[in-house]
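[job 0417] fold request received: YigZ family protein
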Amino acid sequence: MIPYRTIEETDDSIETLYEIQKSKFITHLRHVDSEEDARAFIQSMKKKYFDARHNCSAYVLGESADKQKSNDDGEPGGTAGNPILEVIRKNDLTNVVVVVTRYFGGIKLGAGGLIRAYSHAAVLGIEAATVLAMTPFIQLNEVVSYDLLATVEHWMRQKEIRSLEADYAENVILHLLIEPANLEAVKAALTDLTAGRAALTTGDESLIAIPADS
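[job 0417] inference complete; emitting structure tokens
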């Protein structure tokens, strides 16, 4: 599995406002999983801000960020859509669409000014979002007796081991989430901690969303 960074899914889009030289730049962005979703979001912003001079956009899709598109929507070529796209790239994000709506204030910004304005507007939008690192984890299932449970749970807290909800029956089944590179070390540590009394089985690998550091 390929790790990647994206933004948190929300019911509503994230909105920020940036003003310069009487022009207003309104940024909206959201998590999307397909080109169809990205295009639909762009169209919804164009419909909402139908009276704006420009609704410029960019999106990046796929775990490998291999689907990328930008649109200047009437601004001089390369001054709007591509700067937005570059901000998405610099933040190593994918499965995200960004739309920057511009209400012209009567003062021309020039090509350089437009590039800086659209870039800054996109940066503000991404800074307002919750960035997630989609990280590969392997589920490690551990069957332990109740007399060992407190010891194992204490160790898990110390090591900051993520886990799913446990199953409680005759014994306890803990479902630990371990990064692949740490799997063997964790198995060895648990075997030592429980003096070999824990039954360990390896489950499926999946991508888990965790808050990104930056």
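[job 0417] notes: The mean pLDDT is 96. The CA atoms of residues 32 and 95 lie 5 Å apart.
[job 0417] exit 0
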